[in-house]
Automatic annotation (TrEMBL):
Catalytic reactions of this protein: shikimate + NADP(+) = 3-dehydroshikimate + NADPH + H(+)
Species in which this protein is naturally found: Gaiella occulta
Subunit: Homodimer.
Protein name: Shikimate dehydrogenase (NADP(+))
Keywords for this protein: Amino-acid biosynthesis, Aromatic amino acid biosynthesis, NADP, Oxidoreductase
Length: 249
């Protein structure tokens, strides 16, 4: 049980909805492992109240926040400053509140790139939201040739033929949109709370793909980077990983 006192430093998750997220138990386990009087709380915010919410948590003394669907692009206009990665990606998933200023950054893309070999590869990114933009930017920065496909495109669904990397940055979890082949490195940003593999991860494992990275791997990597931005401390990833496992039925 997390105890929140008058001395507790708060961070939160701005999204709509937030009930699906395993970020709260992951980050709270990290704070506990380092003996920090910090707490991470879900903050469900409908799109039309995002500006009020960002101003409110900053005014209330929060140290920062994560930003998730559907706010990663909309929150940009509410930031006083963007780091270079967020500016290039056009997406923000991490806020730091510093002296009344809202600082925006993105850890999504680098979390993906840290788990695969991207240089000189051809990558297909599925999605049109903030996470897809961040992943595409990071892959390009790492030397990959990137194609982004979304349901708004006339050629949907695309084929994985001719690609070396496949990244699902859509919310689709139980629908296999693109069939993987064995030569692919596959990354799925989505995850199922009940512990089952998503349809893409299951198909990638069955196909014997070169690498398979599931949504919890990505969540841990991006969360560890956010944790360090807020606290100035290296994230205790072993404790955070254990909390992710324990949080699933």
């Amino acid at each position: 049980m997390i105890e929140i006192r008058g001395t507790t430093t708060l961070v939160g998750l701005l999204g709509w909805p937030t009930s699906h997220s395993l970020s709260p138990p992951m980050h709270n386990a990290g704070f506990a492992a380092l003996g920090l009087d910090w707490a991470y709380v879900p903050l469900p915010v409908p799109p039309d109240r995002l500006a009020d919410a960002v101003r409110g948590v900053a005014a209330a003394g929060f140290a920062g926040a994560n930003v998730t669907i559907p706010h990663k692009q909309a929150v940009i206009t509410l930031c006083d400053e963007l780091d270079e990665v967020a500016r290039r990606a056009g997406s923000v998933n991490t806020l730091v509140f510093d002296g009344g200023r809202v600082l925006g950054s993105s850890t999504d893309g680098d979390a993906v790139v840290s788990r695969i070999e991207a240089g000189g590869r051809r990558a297909l990114v599925l999605g049109a939201g903030g996470a897809a933009l961040a992943v595409a930017e990071a892959l390009e920065r790492a030397g990959a040739a990137v194609t982004v496909a979304s349901r708004r495109d006339s050629g949907w669904p695309p084929s994985a033929g001719g690609f070396d990397i496949l990244v699902n940055a859509t919310p689709l979890k139980e629908e296999l949109v693109v069939a993987p082949h064995a030569r692919l490195q596959v990354v799925d940003l989505a995850y199922l709370q009940d512990g089952r593999d998503t349809a893409l991860v299951a198909a990638a494992r069955a196909a014997g793909c070169e690498a398979v990275v599931d949504g919890l791997d990505v969540l841990l990597a991006q969360g560890a980077a956010s944790f360090a931005r807020w606290t100035g401390r290296a994230a205790p990833t072993a404790a955070m990983r254990a909390a992710l496992r324990a949080a699933r039925p």
